[in-house]
Amino acid sequence: MLGGLAELTEVAVRHGVQVVALAIPGLPSAEVRRLARAAGAAGAAVRYLPSFLVALQREVVGSDMRTLDVNRLLGRRELHVAGHDVRSVIAGRRVLVTGAGGSIGSELCRQVHAFDPAELFMLDHDESNLHRLQLELWGEALLTDDSLVIADIRDRARIRQIFRDLRPEVVFHAAAHKHLPLLERHPCEAVKSNVLGTDILVEASLDAGVERFVLISTDKAADPTSVLGATKRLAELIVRANARDARNLGTGVFSAVRFGNVLGSRGSLLSVLAEQLRSGGPVTVTHPEVTRFFMTIEEAVGLVLEAGRMARGGEVFVLDMGEPVRIVDLVRNFAAQVNAPEVPIRFTGLRAGEKLNEALFSVHEERLPTAHPKVFATESGQGPEDLAGGLTALYAAAAGNDDEAARRALRVLLPGYGGTAPSLGAEVAAPAPYPDGF
């Protein structure tokens, strides 16, 4: 027993506490907020014990993975990326998180909230997820303040209005379409959200004088072969182009972060695997040798926060994720840990746009060290000479819902990208929708 509730900050600092668990479901909401601020002052994240009713109703979430041997699933030790210094870019500032209702976005909100921002604005087009998140963070969800923002990032006028009214100083952009096989079939929707949406947010951030902007990208943006990878690569290039302008003007700092696959996120490999095991299998895997880089939600968000702290403008940050993991090995390790060691596996074939092995860096990119020993950076590389003109053609194709024109425009903007439309053969007819490689 280290002390009472009033001594939380002192105890957390003295012992280097990284997570504070509030295991008092009946605690008044005002006391919950006070303790969250006290934990944030010590650089600690906060976790809440849900009420009995919520615990009965909720679905399995990423934090339930703590009962598994995560190191064994990852093929490496789990890393704690974000340090106390992250507080310097969050505390006392107005912070906006897009895609706040998603797995990465909601974890970002939890950890940002722990660092005591002046305001935390949570933006999503799904009002139900926002309501649940506010209830979790504040212990109540009266919907009477500006913390919840319902908006579509593709709506330029609405985004400009939000930035004008709320004046965010730090922006974490997690909103995106991310399902690789579906985006192969619907490239115009990928362009509207992943490219145009990012362009609109960057433009609004520049106009509003945002201090720091961090884009959530993906390892599929490195030498992309899919619509998902191509659209996220263009999002990186948009951030880079504007970062250069912002740096010259001495205004904001714009950067990006690439993730591998995230364990425990909504619709991720583990959640689909658990469902297939629950229904008796078989488990579907695209190819016996397919590999992916994996990280936990906590690692991913820690990387985002560190990127926000270390960025100087234009970088893409990547976590040192060790060796890629064969998905069949991960499936077997997971099955063994939940006492289903004889899991049958059915191989369905790689789908359009999928790689057998992912890379964290393009062959044209240099891996650069940063102040964090487990985080690397790269300059985002040279984009097309006429990025603005190419984007205009791309947006016109997407606005007209012309899939083939959108694919052609992507190839013009990214000459190394050779994405093709999926066929209706056996490869694509596998039991979708499954996450990448699964």
From TrEMBL:
SUPFAM superfamilies the UniProt entry points to: NAD(P)-binding Rossmann-fold domains (SSF51735)
Domain Polysaccharide biosynthesis protein CapD-like: 95-378
InterPro entries referenced in this protein's UniProt entry, alphabetically: NAD(P)-bd_dom_sf, Polysac_CapD-like, Polysaccharide_Synthase-Rel
Domain of life where this protein originates: Bacteria
One Pfam family of this chain: Polysacc_synt_2
Entry's family note: Belongs to the polysaccharide synthase family.
Protein name per its UniProtKB record: FlaA1/EpsC-like NDP-sugar epimerase
Species in which this protein is naturally found: Allostreptomyces psammosilenae
